[in-house]
Amino acid sequence: MAHVVGPEVVKYACTCGLLKSISSLYFCRYCCQLRCGFCVCHEVDSHFCGKCCENLPSSEARLKKNRCGNCYICPSCQQELSTRIGSKGPSNPEDPKSTPKKMYYLSCLYCRWSSRDVGIPDQSAATGGWPDRENVNANRLQEIIEMYKAMVLAEKQQKEKDKKKQRGKYLSYTDRTGVTAAALRKRIGLPVDIQHSLLKAKPKEPEPAIAKEDVEDLPEELLTKPVNLTEVTTIEQRLLQIDLQPTTVEKLFPVHKQLSIKRSLRCRSCEHNVSKPEYNPNSVKFKIQLFAYYHVPEIRIVTVEPLRAGRPSELIIKFTNPTQHQTTITILSLVLSGDENEVKEETGDQPSLPQEKQPPSLSSQPSSLLSLSSRQPSITIKPRPVSQEVNADVAIPSSKVILPPRDDAAEYDDSGDTHNIQDDPKLVVWRKSNKAFVKLLVTPKQGLALNTEIVAGFTMQHIYTNTIATTVENREPDKHDHNIRVFLTLGNLVGFD
Amino acid sequence: MPIYEALSDKLTVVLDVGSAYTKFGFSGEYAPRCIIRSEVRCKKTNTIRRIIDYENEKDLYDLLVDFVHVLYFKYALFSPKDKPIVVVESLLCPTLFRETLAKVLFEHYEISMLLMLPSHLVGLSTLGAETALVLDVGYFEAVAIPVCHGLPVIHAWQALPLGSQIIHNNLRALLNSDNTGINNLPESVIEDIKVRCCFVTKQKRAAQLSVAKPEITFAPEVKYPIGGSEIITVSGKVREKVYEILYDEDNDHLCLSTMLLDAITKVDIHLRNKLAENILLIGGTVMVPGFKARLKEELHKQLKHDRYKKLKISSFKFHTPPCKENYTAWLGGAIYGATELLSMKALTREKYFKENRLPDWPNMRDNFRTNN
Fold it and tell me: By percentage, how much of chain A surpasses pLDDT 70?
């Protein structure tokens, strides 16, 4: 599996035009298209704390400002803090036989910072006893926010009132008869204009800030005292506590640890989930796992002859069929300009707002339910032309390669391959269960300098069998061709013809 | 914050993308959730690149997509789809940048509404005041725009490239002349040296810095370790001299202090004194020890020149915002975002896709009078 984290030698072109290796691609079963991290819609699924592995509901996460209530991080090195037991004094000072009371303090195992360095007294409770610091200016800012809210609300209501007055062009019934509401009120004796309840009592406005002539001077000790770099905080340490931003180390207080999220990915055109992780933070599995690695044949480079400009070199690549159905691979020539599956109509440079799209008939969600949800349909990403330049030609073979389905029990069964597939011996060099070695001839273009990186490309067409639950009448799962553009980085040019 | 407000679904993101640091948080809160560097790992080159180092529009689009992804899914832990956002920006922000940011947010992240606020104007809301001369000294440049009765007086704008970038270059040059053999220190190391060792000195001492035989004793030097093995010396003279570049007059006799006085000169006569007595300083570079005191000294020194004699200003008064200066503009955006202004004035998705551009103050199509 080292090829997953190694250099990306084999890249597939996603429908949005970006080149990714197969481990970064997803396959939407409903649209039968490749998707990548760029063209899917990311959503936050659940919040959890990385240290205590507890799930938090999203409302509670919002309340606690996306931070765990129990876990802290070291303000000096931003690693996790552990609670350690400190001095133990007797809980009841008078009774010498009572059990010693345990006092806890926070300590960082990496940089040896502890809560005693900043003067926080030891706590008797293991969790949740540490004091939380409040913003000094909270009251003043709250007043200012209230004032502006009231101001804008008043302006908004004024505007609406003006709009209503404008609409008063139309005569009301009472006007036609000569008895308006205002005249009636005057006759009775009530005040003519109805006082708006909100305009009656104006809340007390906070006074605007007063500018001062005196500004804080340069502290004299900067000019005389030598600087101890271990006592001055760095910018990263200061930015951990944004409202304080202390300049000296003794004011660095521990900060709550930030939560992590589980993300679910959704295809933009059919609104189905492409990847959905499990809710449990300790689990790395997925509920919905539509990765391209499990649906699209994987290509790996086995060997390539040293490349010379103008001379054909042999390239052996390995195809692996990951599905439970037999597939046939056809190698076609590469089409760089535009995607084969691109929308034919000219939309110009502006993406138009998508109309209310109904999901395809294969969807599991009934259309009535979709209209009830407040979710707007997603805007699909406009595909961009592939930016990779291909500087070698691949000789397109005329025959196809049949790959049998993946059989997990085959590795324990020594009965051997009984598929009896007739192969073109010049094309298929070796075969075992669902894998096959295919030989291709690659000719780098003339006129390239030494040591240029050679990139070859072709279109792989494979038959994809759709395994979504089909309707009752049709028991056969439908198969259709799926084209993927593949780009192989074959190494540097060694010599000339 | 009362509980019922926190549980409501009306969480609006407030974003301030600066050249060096980005402030990101939610409306109605008193401080941003995170202040991070405006850089992201580029997928093509697999190196960390700054957002301001973009090559063309497509490059900026990809960088912003990755950057906004990190902001939402690592720091805010919030889905951007169908939610509003408030962006605080400078009035002199390049059109390409703001249009690309709007495109990324609307097309890629499918937000519902976008409200762009000018940083100088909203910074005032943290004070509750309506008239002040706002000076924003950031990384890329220093911009001064007076705000009178709640309206930025744009024709009086003053901008000079006197930000942290020029200070870093100055520090690099000064260190190179003192220490041999250290070249190409990364930007983060230079920034750390600047933050921890350097400060803005007083006017009297500053005059002595360039003299061959100074009469003052410099501040003690600092031995700064680099890379775990080398140590460079930041001499006392360098510590005090780095920020002098802000007050060196260039060929047009412009510097930080003249900028403020020029801005005041361009405003109406009866507002000038009021502006001089309400100066607000925002931006990260302002947080250096000694900055405000020196600015006040320099302003008084410039007043004695002939060209400012007509101003007849007697005193300068400075405001202290109820927050740290490096996120004052963000806090203003958060205050505005907490009001109903978002639903009244924000640009909705439908309107953006119809027009395909943002409303902009230099664009004559947006400058017509509305009947109130």
Answer: 79
How many CB atoms within 10 Å of residue A260?
18
Closest CA to A497 of A455, A441, A444: A444
CB B174 within 8 A of CB B153: no
| Chain B partners within 8 Å of A228 (Cβ) | none
Distance CA A15, CA A381 (A): 9
What's the pLDDT score for residue A222?
81
**With a CB-CB cutoff of 8 Å, which residues 42-61 of chain A face chain B?**
42-44, 47, 59, 61
* pLDDT, tens digit (0-9, with 9 covering 90-100), for B212-264: 777 888 888 888 888 888 888 888 889 999 999 999 888 888 999 999 999 99
What pLDDT, on a 0 to 100 scale, did the predictor assign at position A430? 87
Find chain B residues with C-beta within 8 A of A350's C-beta. Answer: 353, 356
**Residue B285 at interface with chain A, using a CB cutoff of 8 Å:** no
Write the residue in B33, B196, B327 that is nearest to A229 by C-beta: B196
Per-residue pLDDT tens over the stretch B59-115: 999 999 999 999 999 999 989 999 999 999 999 999 999 999 999 999 999 999 999
Q: Choose the closest CB to B335 out of A138, A148, A245.
A: A148
Give the distance from residue A161's alpha carbon to the nearest chain B alpha carbon, in angstroms: 12
CA gap B354, B21 in Å, rounded = 33
CA distance linking residue A19 with residue A8, whole number of Å: 10
Using DSSP's 3-state secondary structure scheme, residue B300 falls into: helix
- pTM over 0.80, yes/no: yes
Looking at the complex, does the CB of residue B41 fall below 8 Å from at least one CB of chain A? no
